[in-house]
Structures are given as C-alpha cells and as structure tokens.
C-alpha cells in the first residue's frame, strides 16, 4: 500500500506501511499499531458477545424452550456478559481509540512506556484465551458477577474464567498507568491542564480508576479461587465465610468499572459535539471537573448493588451517595446541549452518534433515579428494569460513543473515508433496534419480570417478542457497519489531513499519520478554537493557518484566546 | 409483517386485560405499601419525562435551526455562563435530594415489620420455596391472611436466593447462614406470582410459586384444614409429599441410585446389614426408629450423618412415610 498526501506531495510512508510483515506488527512499540491491534481484537470479542446476545434473545422469543436448554442458556448469558464487559467495553475506548489518539492529541511521539503498552495487549490476548478456553471446555454459568456461594459450588470452569479476568485486570491497570504518566509528562509546550482536549480529561479520569480499583478485583478473584480450589472459607457460609462480603469486594471494583466504561465515552462525545457543530465547547471546566468528580464519586456508591441485602443504615448512606453521581452527569448533558446552541451543525455519522448518545444516555441516566431511590429500587432490583437501565448506559452510552469515535477518527486511523449515507442508515437502524430491544425491557421490569430467567410466565411473552425483534434490527445495522467499514479500507476515498476542521493536534499530521506522528512537535492551541483552520474547497481539507485572529469581542483568539474566557 | 401486526394486537389486548391494574406497567397493588411505592415511581417518572422531553426538544430545535452552511463559519465563542450553570446544577440537586428522602421514607416502611405481625418461616433451596407455619405445617405455596401484617423469616440451605412478590412491591435476598426478613400487609384477596430474583442456577426461572391471599377470616379456616392435610390424602401420596417437604430426597433416592443415605427403593421388608455386623429386617418399627433416632442403628457402608426428625414429624406423618416406602417395592 502506498500513499499520497492530500496535496499531491511525494509519497511518504505512514505507520501502516512503514515496516512490512506480520512480525513487525507483533513486536511493534508504536502506539498507533497497538491501538489498531486492540481495535481488531476487541471487535472480535464484540462480535462473539453480540452473537451470544442474539442467541439469548432468540431463546427468549417464546416461554419455555425455544432453542437451548436451561443450563446452556445460563452459560450463554454469563459469557455474553463476561465477554462484553471484560473483553470489549472496558478496553474498548481507552485501549483501542485511546491508544491511537492520546499521544497524537498530545503532539507526542508515543506513550510514556511503549513496551508496557505492548505487554498490556499481550495480556489482553492471554486473558481472552483463558476466557475462550473456558467456553470450549465447559462454559461458566455463574453470571458475569461470579456471586458466591454459587460460584464456589458450581461444577463449571470458574477458575479458568476468573484467571482470565484476573489477567485482563492487569492489562487494564497497565494501560491506565501508562496513560496517567503520559498525560502528566508528555504534554507539549503550551498545553496546560486547562488546555487539554476533553477526551484526554476523560481518559485521565478513567486511568485513575483503572489503577486504583482494578487491584481490588484481582484480589477478590484470587480469594474466590482460594476458596474454590483450596477450601479456604472466606465467602461460603458452610466454610465459615460471608457471602455478602464477596459482593462488597466485587462491586468495590465493578461499580467504578462502569465509570471506566462511561467516562472515556463522555470524552469522545465532548470532542464530537464541539467539532461537528464548529463551536467551542460550552463549560470546558465544568465538563473536565465533572469527569474527575464522577471518578471520585464512583468509589463510594457500590453498596447500591446490595439494597435488597444490606441493613437499613447501609442502604440509606449508599442511596444518598448514589444520587451524588447524577449531578455531574446532568451537568455534562446540559453542557453538550448548550454547545449545539448557535453552532454550525453537520449531521454526519459521528454527530448522529453523538446525538443518539445524548438521547439514550438521557434515558439511561434518568432511569437511574428510580434505582437510586430505595422504595422504588426494592421492586425493580434484579428485574429487567436493571437490564434495560445498564444497557441504556453501557450500550446506548459507551458503545454508541465508541461507534461515533470510530467514525470520527476512522479517516485518521486508516486514511480512508467510508460511505457517509450507509453510515447514517446503519446508525438509524442501530438506534431504532436498540430502543425496540431495551425500552420494552423497562416495562417488563416494572411488571415484575426477574432477570436471568430462562423461562417466564405468559404475561411477559409479547414484550419479550418485541425485544427480540429489536435485537435483529440492531444486528442488521451492525453487519451493515462492518460491511461499509471493511469496504472503505480497500476502496474508500482517500482521507485528507483534517476533513472535519477539528482543532486538536491529531489532525495536524497526515492521514494516516507517519510512524513518528509529527515532523515537528506542534504547538498546542486552545483545542476548540476553529479559526485556526481554513477550508480548502479544492482538496476538501481544512488547512492549518494558525491562531492569528480576533474574536467578536476584540479578544485575541486561539493560542492566547483560551485565557480570555471572561 | 404479519408477525408485527400480531404483536401489536397482542399488546393492545394485554392493555385491556390488565385494566384491573392501576397502570399497564405495574403489577396489581395487593399490599398496603404498593400504592405508596407506585406513587413515588410515578413522581420520578414524570420528573424524568419532563427533563427528557426538554432535552430532546432543545436538541431537535438546535439541529433544525443551526445547520452548517459555510464550511468556515464558527459558532460564537460562548465559553460558559455562570448563572445558567449554577441553575442547572442546583435544580437537579434539589430534585434528587427530595427523591432520596421520599425513597428512604418509603423504604423504612417496607423494612420495619410491625410488632404484631404473623410470622412464617421460609426456606429457599434449589429450586423451590418451603413455607413453615407456626403450627409446623409446611407448604410450597405461600398462604397469607389479608387482615393482618405478615413477616417472613427467611434462610437458604444452599446458595443466595431472593424472595420477590411483585404485587406487594417486596423483595429481599435469602442467604445461607443467616436470617433475613420481609414483611407486607396484604390487602387484596387473590393469587399472585412469587419469584426467586437472585440467580441460583439451572432451575432459577422455575423457582416460582404463588402467594394466596385469603379473605378476612378465611385464613384461619384454611389453616385448620391444612394442619390435618395428612388425614385428607391417601397415605402414599402424603408420604411422597413429606419425602419432598422434609428434604429426605437430598440423601435418599427412590430409584435405587446410591446417595448419602440408603435408597428407599425396595428397602421396606428387606434384611439390612448393620455396621456392627448384626442384621435387622426393615419393618415398621425399624423405620420409625430410623426417623426419630437415626444414630441408633447405622447401615453398613454409610456414615451416621442423618439428623433426628423428633418434633418435626408426628405419628400420622411417620405412618404416611412408611406407606410411601411400601409403595416403592
């Protein structure tokens, strides 16, 4: 593959073709290549998890047996959850998109520890092998939460699976550590903390949680293995343990983990909304600080997963703390909305995904209010209302933002444009299918349908059928997406350096970038000053002209303009 | 296409069928607390609808009004607006404080049982519920009076389960090695589903039974009849029910398969070889002794692990079990 820069200059090698051969990929220290390898790996996991989800939904099409028996169904939903959470959503945005984008956004040549970066990918692969081996030799049936004492008593491959998750945890810790150090040490001249793109604030907040919370999961899983393999009584009451203790340990990681999943998504959305409405982000400080606030609050709300098992005192405290998370989330949503106001909005695929995010995350967030309030949670706990709520946040939020980010950075990653119209159609299909699938589940939940049920009473049949139909519509949307993205790699129009007119630094190098990212380290501007670029109708590129203009109020803008925010 | 129309028709029908409920999305309100929970649910629902509609309307308005025309145009540099930001932080904060408080108040009503409540012991096990009444009677369906509050004192014999009665808006985890409580004041006589809500394995979704709420005064009548249930059934059938109720099946098979204890198939009347070398014919007296004093005689090849059923089973029950064993020849 040879490339030409957008203005027809001499061909220059990019990171994709700089070194040939599969070995050069497997031993690469280039963050961009590692990002692409992560992308391919997690998309494989996403495909696997998605197929399992379709099997689960198909089984639920009718009461009683539809295609599989109860034990197989229990394994299907367990593997769907475990694969989607540990192999796809947690590494999704940070390790795939983040790895590619973070050093570029900093104007840096690479992350702080390139070897550690490669190691974390190999750890991911090792963890994934454990997980998939456990599928082949006797799938786990505990649910992705591995609750004791069920998980210490079941005959399935719990040790294999938890060892996989344990190793994946280290992969996640290393990525987080790498990002924290990179952001602290490798920011370029001119990029103060308050001039970092909000994507980086999102990744930074995420990395802090990864480093602080993941070790607790690792320890918990080791204790679980110790109980299962050696009979050490920690969680199982028949050995003198406490089953609720496991849930406390598990959620002390896994609640912050849902913010590992959503915070980078919020970072992506902040970039997408601002760039594609060509308007500076509204409330930069509020968005940046709310990411940090969410990261901090995420550590003190885990108890709400046990409202049906804890003392009233514990419940009262955790209910109050839980509501604290809703405020920074609401603030972000209002800021994105205010950014759209008087913007110049482009309704392309990345923007459509960003708007879909606001819609779906809005529902996901608001339904959290029913679950934070104790009296209503007691009825809704462990029902389909929960299933719907977390899919609205994790899928409607994180996966939609991931798709938006992929479409936004695709030209930069691979130097090719995708078919815009097909992308819009696919976005619409996924959006509609998603709402069909999961909105019905809110109603199933309020009606009293418990989650993780293989069979159900006839009252729930119609809504279950609606939900399954929705999942098929979504599947069509995803296959369409896979189709046009793969097509773009071979036959897509070549991408220019900066097709969106974005002002963050990754758009100041070729698409795809050269191996060492930049010929010269770029100066950092205020990342949402769109006057630094001028559209070139001949090439379709936004040429960089530098910050030299004066805004409506006579203030200098761009590099110095960021300070004059009053 | 036909399938879709079919589904819509079914949904419409469901709406009609459930007009007995207050809303199409909530189960019937069959306890004193249900109306309060639903009131709070609806309050949060309308607050959420208001904010969601506000967000979507603004979003759509902005998309329609502010479309890109000139690729070089840039929106006005509105970096922030302090009064606006304080407003949209303070209002949601005030709202969630109120929601928290209402949720907590409602929960305290659900969590604290009244002192005069009628107590029923509950055992959750894979994959059924056993309800033990104060007089020792055990049933797999929960019968409750509608004229007094009821407390369930619950424990599990294996993994974690959760007691969930949607019509009462009540749910509590049922754990091995400890007791948890749930209480309700059933108001509407009728039959309602009762689920296990905490995943417990293969039969999780089959761990369903019913709550039968008796009309005023009818509970006592039912209780008197139920206490004598052995007398109303054929002895072998009563024996089969006891076999399952008392948990005999956990150790003794009826198929000849080996277990923790000897199988019951072909046991009655056979000659048993004991640990001390003696032999005993398994007659009525031997069976009775094995149930009440299981450690007295141990069959060769088995460990003395059976608990005594002294006080848990009466003579008519023993007779029923013997009749059941005789039927397993």
UniProtKB/TrEMBL annotation, chain A:
Which pathway does it take part in? Energy metabolism; oxidative phosphorylation
The Gene Ontology biological process terms listed for this entry are: aerobic respiration; electron transport coupled proton transport; respiratory electron transport chain
Similarity comment: Belongs to the heme-copper respiratory oxidase family.
What is the membrane topology noted in the UniProt record heading this document? Multi-pass membrane protein
What keyword terms does UniProt attach to this protein? Cell membrane, Copper, Electron transport, Heme, Iron, Membrane, Metal-binding, Respiratory chain, Translocase, Transmembrane, Transmembrane helix, Transport
Give a short account of what the protein does: Cytochrome c oxidase is the component of the respiratory chain that catalyzes the reduction of oxygen to water. Subunits 1-3 form the functional core of the enzyme complex. CO I is the catalytic subunit of the enzyme. Electrons originating in cytochrome c are transferred via the copper A center of subunit 2 and heme A of subunit 1 to the bimetallic center formed by heme A3 and copper B.
> Which compartment or compartments is the protein found in?
Cell membrane; Membrane
Q: Which SUPFAM superfamilies does the UniProt record give?
A: Cytochrome c oxidase subunit I-like
Cytochrome oxidase subunit I profile domain residues are 17-525
Q: Could you say which enzyme class this protein belongs to?
A: translocase
Q: What is this protein called?
A: Cytochrome c oxidase subunit 1
Q: Out of the domains of life, which is the source?
A: Bacteria
GO cellular component terms listed in the entry, alphabetical order: plasma membrane
Write out the catalysed reaction: 4 Fe(II)-[cytochrome c] + O2 + 8 H(+)(in) = 4 Fe(III)-[cytochrome c] + 2 H2O + 4 H(+)(out)
Question: What stretches pass through the bilayer?
Answer: 36-56, 76-106, 118-138, 158-181, 201-225, 245-269, 281-304, 316-340, 352-374, 386-410, 422-444, 464-486
List the molecular function annotations (GO) for this entry: cytochrome-c oxidase activity; heme binding; metal ion binding
List the Gene3D superfamilies hit by this protein, alphabetically: Cytochrome c oxidase-like, subunit I domain
Q: What is its EC number?
A: 7.1.1.9
């Amino acid at each position: 593959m040879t490339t030409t820069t957008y203005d027809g200059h001499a061909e220059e090698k990019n990171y994709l073709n700089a070194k040939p051969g599969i070995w050069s990929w497997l031993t690469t220290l280039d963050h961009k290549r590692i990002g692409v390898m992560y992308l391919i790996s997690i998309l494989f996991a996403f495909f696997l998890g998605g197929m399992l989800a379709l099997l689960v939904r198909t089984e639920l099409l009718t009461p009683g047996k539809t295609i599989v028996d109860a034990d197989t169904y229990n394994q299907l939903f367990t593997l769907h959850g475990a694969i989607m959470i540990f192999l796809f959503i947690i590494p999704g945005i940070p390790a795939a998109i983040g790895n590619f984008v973070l050093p570029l956004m900093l104007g840096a040549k690479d992350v702080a520890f390139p070897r550690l970066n490669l190691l974390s990918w190999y750890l991911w692969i090792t963890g994934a092998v454990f997980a998939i081996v456990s599928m082949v030799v006797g799938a786990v049936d505990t649910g992705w939460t591995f609750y004791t004492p069920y998980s210490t008593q079941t005959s399935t491959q719990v040790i294999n699976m938890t060892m996989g998750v344990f190793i994946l945890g280290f992969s996640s810790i290393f990525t987080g550590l790498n990002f924290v150090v990179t952001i602290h040490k490798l920011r370029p001249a001119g990029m103060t903390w308050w001039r970092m793109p909000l994507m980086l604030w999102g990744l930074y907040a995420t990395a802090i949680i990864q480093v602080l919370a993941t070790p607790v999961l690792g320890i918990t899983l080791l204790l679980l293995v110790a109980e299962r393999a050696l009979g050490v009584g920690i969680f199982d009451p028949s050995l003198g343990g406490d089953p609720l203790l496991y849930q406390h340990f598990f959620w002390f990681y896994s609640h912050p983990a849902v913010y590992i999943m959503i915070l980078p998504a919020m970072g992506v959305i902040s970039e997408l909304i601002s760039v594609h409405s060509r308007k500076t982000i509204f409330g930069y400080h509020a968005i940046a600080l709310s990411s940090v606030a969410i990261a901090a609050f995420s550590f003190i709300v885990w108890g709400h997963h046990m409202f049906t098992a804890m003392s009233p005192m514990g419940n009262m405290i955790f209910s109050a703390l839980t509501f604290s998370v809703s405020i920074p989330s609401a603030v972000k949503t209002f800021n994105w909305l205010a950014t759209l106001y008087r913007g110049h909005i482009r309704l392309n695929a990345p923007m459509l995904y960003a708007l879909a995010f606001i819609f779906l995350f809005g529902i996901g967030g608001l339904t959290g209010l029913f679950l934070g309030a104790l009296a209503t949670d007691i009825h809704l706990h462990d029902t389909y209302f929960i299933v719907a709520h977390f899919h609205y946040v994790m899928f409607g939020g994180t996966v939609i933002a991931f798709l938006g980010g992929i479409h936004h950075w695709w030209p930069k990653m691979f130097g090719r444009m995708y078919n815009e119209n097909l992308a819009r159609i696919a976005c619409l299909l996924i959006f509609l299918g998603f709402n069909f699938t999961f909105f019905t589940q809110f109603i199933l939940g309020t009606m009293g349908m418990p989650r993780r049920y293989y069979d159900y009473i006839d009252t729930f049949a119609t809504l279950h059928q609606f939900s399954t139909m929705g999942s098929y519509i979504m599947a069509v949307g995803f296959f369409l997406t896979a189709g046009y993205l793969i097509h773009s790699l071979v036959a897509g129009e070549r991408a220019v350096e900066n097709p969106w007119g974005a002002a963050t630094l990754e758009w100041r190098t070729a698409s795809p970038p050269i191996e060492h990212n930049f010929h010269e380290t770029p100066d950092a501007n205020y990342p949402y000053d769109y006057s630094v670029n001028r559209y070139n109708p001949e090439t379709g590129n936004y040429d960089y002209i530098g910050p030299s203009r004066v805004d409506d109020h006579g203030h200098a803008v761009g590099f110095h303009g960021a300070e004059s925010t009053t | 296409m036909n399938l879709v129309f079919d589904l819509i028709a079914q949904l419409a029908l469901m709406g009609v069928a459930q007009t007995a409920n207050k809303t199409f999305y909530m189960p019937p309100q069959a306890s004193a607390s249900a109306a309060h929970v639903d009131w709070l649910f609806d309050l949060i629902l309308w607050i959420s609808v208001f904010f969601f509609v506000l967000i979507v309307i603004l979003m759509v308005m902005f998309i329609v009004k502010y479309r890109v025309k000139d690729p070089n145009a840039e929106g006005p540099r509105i970096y922030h607006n302090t009064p606006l930001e304080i407003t949209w932080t303070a209002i949601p904060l005030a709202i969630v404080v109120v929601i928290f408080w209402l949720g907590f108040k409602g929960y305290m009503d659900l969590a604290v049982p009244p002192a005069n409540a009628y107590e029923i012991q509950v055992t959750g096990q894979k994959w059924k519920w056993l309800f033990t009444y104060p007089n020792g009677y055990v049933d797999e369906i929960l019968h409750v009076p509608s004229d007094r509050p009821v407390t369930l004192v619950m424990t599990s014999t294996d993994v974690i389960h959760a007691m969930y009665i949607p019509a009462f808006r009540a749910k509590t985890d049922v754990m091995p090695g400890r007791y948890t409580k749930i209480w309700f004041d059933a108001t509407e006589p009728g039959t309602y589903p009762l689920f296990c809500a905490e995943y417990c394995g293969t039969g999780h979704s089959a761990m369903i039974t019913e709550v039968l709420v008796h009309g005023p005064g009818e509970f006592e009548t039912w209780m008197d009849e139920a206490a004598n249930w052995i007398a109303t059934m054929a002895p072998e059938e009563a024996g089969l029910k006891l076999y399952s109720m008392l948990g005999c099946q956990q150790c003794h098979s009826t198929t000849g398969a080996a277990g923790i204890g000897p199988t019951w198939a072909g046991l009655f009347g056979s000659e048993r070889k004991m640990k001390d070398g003696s032999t005993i014919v398994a007659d009525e007296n031997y069976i009775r002794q094995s149930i009440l004093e299981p450690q007295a005689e141990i069959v060769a090849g088995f460990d003395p692990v059976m608990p005594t059923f002294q006080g848990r089973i009466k003579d008519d029950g023993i007779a029923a079990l013997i009749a059941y064993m005789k039927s397993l020849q």
